[in-house]
Amino acid sequence: MTTSTPLTQDELKALVGQAALRYVVPGDIVGVGTGSTVNKFIDALATVKDQVRGAVSSSVASTERLRAIGIPVFDANEVEQLGVYIDGADEIDGQGHMVKGGGAALTREKIVAALARQFVCIADESKLVDTLGRFPLPVEVIPMATAHVARRFAALGGQATLRLKDGQPLVTDNGQHILDVTGLSITDPLALESQINQWPGVVTVGIFAHQKAQVCLLGTAQGVKTLTF
Length: 229
Ligand code: 5RP
What we know:
Elements: H1 9-19, E1 29-32, H2 36-45, E2 54-57, H3 60-68, E3 73-74, E4 82-87, E5 91-92, E6 98-99, H4 106-115, E7 116-124, E8 137-141, H5 146-155, E9 159-162, E10 164-165, E11 168-169, E12 177-182, H6 189-197, E13 202-205, E14 207-208, E15 215-220, E16 223-228
Parallel strand pairs: 1-2, 1-4, 2-3, 4-7, 7-15
Antiparallel strand pairs: 5-6, 6-14, 8-12, 8-13, 9-12, 10-11, 15-16
Ribulose-5-phosphate is lined by residues 33-37, 87-90, 100-106, 109.
C-alpha cells in the first residue's frame, strides 16, 4: 500500500493557480486579483506570458508582480470589457457568493470583476463554507466615517475593528481605511451587500454577491474541483 503526504495549503494554491491558465484566452487582456493564491497564478502566467496581451490589475502589489514578469498592465479605464477575472477569496459559498478583502484590495477587485464577463475564483478547500461570515468581513471606509459605520454594524450585531498595520491604521491603495467585522451570519449576501452599500462613508463592502464567481477552481486533496454557479 502506498501512502502519500497530503498537499499543503501552499501546494493547493499552486495547483489552482496553474489550473486557472486554461481560462486565459491567448491574445486577451486578463483581469488579475490579489493575494497569495493569485501570486501562484501570476507565477503560472509567467510561463505563457508571450501569449498574453496584458492585464488589468486589482492592486499595486499585483501590478508590481505582473510587471516584474514582463506582462503589460493596463489602466482599467483603457479597457471596456475583460473575458475573465481571476482572483482568490477569503470565503466562498455554494452559490459563488464570496467574502473578499483580506488583502485590503476589495475595492479595485470589485471594479476589475465588474469589467469581466466571467469571474473565476481560485481557492483552496478551506475557503468553501455553507454560510458566509466566519471570516471577518472587510469593509473599506472613508476615515472620517469609521466610527459611524462601526455603530451601524453594532446595530446589526457585528463588531467592527479598525485594521492596523505596524500599529497604525492600514491605508489602502485608495488612501482609505478598513474595518473588519465579526459576528455576522451572512444568510442573504445580496441583500446585505446592497444594504451596506447605502451607508455613507462605505467605499466597498467585501461581500461579492452582485459580483459573484461563475466558476470556482477549488484545490482539494483529490485535486482541482471545478464548481460552476
Ligand atoms: C485580497 C483578497 C484575496 O483574494 C483574499 O484575501 C484571499 O487571499 P489569499 O489567496 O492570500 O488567501 O480578497 O483583498
